Amino acid sequence: MPLSRLNDQQYTAATAPYGHNLIIASAGTGKTSTIVGRIAYLISQNVKPEEILLLTFTNKAAQEMVERVAAFFGREIASKIDAGTFHAVSYRWLKRKEGKVVLKQPRELKTLFRSVYEKRTFSHIDCATSAYGANYLYDVYSFYQNTELETNFEEWILTRQDEHAVYAAIYADIIDEFEALKKEYGFVNFNDLLLHMRDLAKQSDLGYKEVLIDEYQDTNALQGTLINAMRPPSLFCVGDYDQSIYAFNGADISIIGSFTTNFPDAKVYTLNKNYRSTVPILSLANTVIAYNERIYPKALEVTRTQEAQSPSLLIYDELFDQYHGIAQKIGDSSTPREEIAVIFRNNASADGIEATLREMGIPCRRRGGTSFFDSKEIKALLDMYTLLVNESDMMAFIHLFDYAKGVGSAIAKELFVALQKLGKGSFLRGLYSPDSEITNPFEKRRLNHQLGLFDDYAELGSAGRFAKLGLDPNFMGNPILKHAKLSKDSATFLHDLFILFRQLRDIKEPKAAVQKIALSSLYGHVIEMLSTRRATTENGSIDERAKSESQERIRRKCTLLFELSRPYKDHERFLNAMVLGSQDLTQGEGVHLLSIHASKGLEYKEVYVIDLMDGRFPNRKLMSRSGSIEEERRLFYVSVTRAKDRLFLSYAKYDKIKKTNFVPSQFLFEAGLIPKDEMYAALVAKGSNEEA
């Protein structure tokens, strides 16, 4: 039984009475074992597995815990536990209730949002502050949904951003039209999953006897209201306020901090026996995090008593000397590559160390920053695949036309609506068998000066201007070609879309569809545009060698997606797996290159935390937007507590490219690795007014 393997603290927490239980589980104290022990205890108390809900920060974490339960109780019992992220669990519930859920990623909905935003003009407003751009406004709205529970968006802007009050009504109108379009096309984003799930929980009893929540310190207000709406008889929340690092995404540390206030009957248990790190590593981490205010008292006890190496501070004269130096140390290390991690605060840091490691022939894999699934080439291929699965997906169509020259989001939306009109509601029918009675599928927009709308009538042109392009005769007669703003390039793009989907009609297997898309002329436009952009030099010329290498990298990514598609036999299941599971998939092998957020919950024998310079870590720019020095300090705590045996902290004094001098991070001073007088001297040398 899992309970027999727990220490006294873990056992006491895992067998806590039903009610509201908070377990403060510091880094390396065995929180996963405690959660698995709790589930085992519930089952032994005759709680049915389907009456248990396990909410985790990643689907991978949920799968690992369920597997551990299965090792003792069997897969049949363990599989009945409802486990996953807030979003995955909500998705499954809504699927059962509504049958079909069209889940869209943020980047896809941003394209739809831009198509709405671009119909407004802010030039008629006299204001010293520029209006938010479309993408940033979308992010602001998403943050609002995760953090605000009562005030409407317009009022929230008025109270939160005084300088944007003049735009508040237009912002709100954009939001209203955006939400109406989402509803019309049945689109659901990740926030919507939680909002709909919350409504469902308010209306009916979901049947859970206990809800277990991992990484409780990173829950946001929206997730908090969802938990409250479920009204479970028993709550088992596991977290550590010192590892709350998602404030930028709406995580609210006050939720874990106010647990005993919100639940007067709550019991708080503490796990303080660290099984991961050595005494010197843990001592450094505790020394720095102690500068943050204590919410719940705790004192970590190290169980590893053998002789250990103290954390090392690596100082380099120049930025790239740092990357080369660390790569050299990794090359000389006897630690297996898979047990080494380089942890970074900023993507620029990762780029430098990744390039240097690869230059030295040291294999590495990167997680955090731009992932495989966020790369433009994979997004474009999946947009084409999405239209195969759901021809009503206007978002995929609009986003795809980013690669059609001269076609912006607004025109792409007009084309999609027109094709649906020509096909009597079917985009594909409009593409292949347009209604012969419709000669003008384009409609005039309304004009509203107050809300910043402007008239942009899509005049008709002659399809005959494309006669010499050699387009398929069955496509030449389509009224869609009459859009006056279509160029020869965009008409060819539409034609290649026509050809591809004619070829995809009878394909049943995902791997065959992925291969067909990757080899199509339509995807060729994507490859050409991306490789050209990436090979364009500062003087505007094209580096042909770089372009060829870029095209080869794109093809390799297509091959990887093809390999991922092999196990799937159903188009919709494959696409949903790519949307829901992409954050848990990594590629490559060797040394781990991790953003701090991606390193959460992981551990390695040897860890390098790089670029510990003031401004980079702590990141002053992000602090000025929505962060704090306390949040940055928690990030530092998380990064160093990933190390089990050896910890290296590094910084550089100078960047020869930007001709910038660096000051060591204040965390190095707080850790006692840099004397106070040296820290002060460095600040004075840089001309800073801050005191160490």
From TrEMBL:
Its EC number is 5.6.2.4. Residues 4-278 form the UvrD-like helicase ATP-binding domain. GO terms for molecular function: 3'-5' DNA helicase activity; ATP binding; ATP hydrolysis activity; DNA binding. Keywords: ATP-binding, DNA-binding, Helicase, Hydrolase, Isomerase, Nucleotide-binding. The keyword Isomerase applies. GO terms for cellular component: cytosol; DNA helicase complex. One of its GO terms (biological process) is recombinational repair. Belongs to the helicase family. UvrD subfamily. Residues 279-601 form the UvrD-like helicase C-terminal domain. The keyword Hydrolase applies. ATP binds at A25, S26, A27, G28, T29, G30, K31, T32. It catalyses: ATP + H2O = ADP + phosphate + H(+); Couples ATP hydrolysis with the unwinding of duplex DNA by translocating in the 3'-5' direction. It comes from the Bacteria. This is DNA 3'-5' helicase.
